[in-house]
Amino acid sequence: MHHLLLALTTTPSPLPTPGLREGISEDQITPGLWGFIMTAFFVLATTLLIVDMVRRIRRVRYRAQVEEERQAAAEAADIEAADGHDGLGVADDADASGDKAGLEDNGHGHAADRPQPRD
Questions:
Q1: Higher-confidence residue: 88 or 1?
Q2: CA-to-CA distance for 94 and 75, rounded, in angstroms?
Q3: In the chain, which residue ranges form alpha helices assigned H by DSSP?
């Protein structure tokens, strides 16, 4: 086996010829000017498509974010309106002692009819 490897490493390979074989022109082995122009066109078109896609994705994300913020603001306004309607968020309901009207204090700073956190 070593003799075969030694023979392969010492056998000289043929030298490459400096020119083209007979019957072959440069246009047959290189893309030429038209190949370069077409490759440049495809690279430019692909770049423009990627930039357009990124813009569209960014626009969709921004619209979704704005819609989410709008819905959150609407929900907050609905909750505030419901609290105002129930009399829970109105400052005029507080009496002189600072307690809300109709709610009794249980001594821990919480209304008696609300669930209490465990200490």
A1: 1
A2: 25
A3: 2-10, 26-29, 32-86
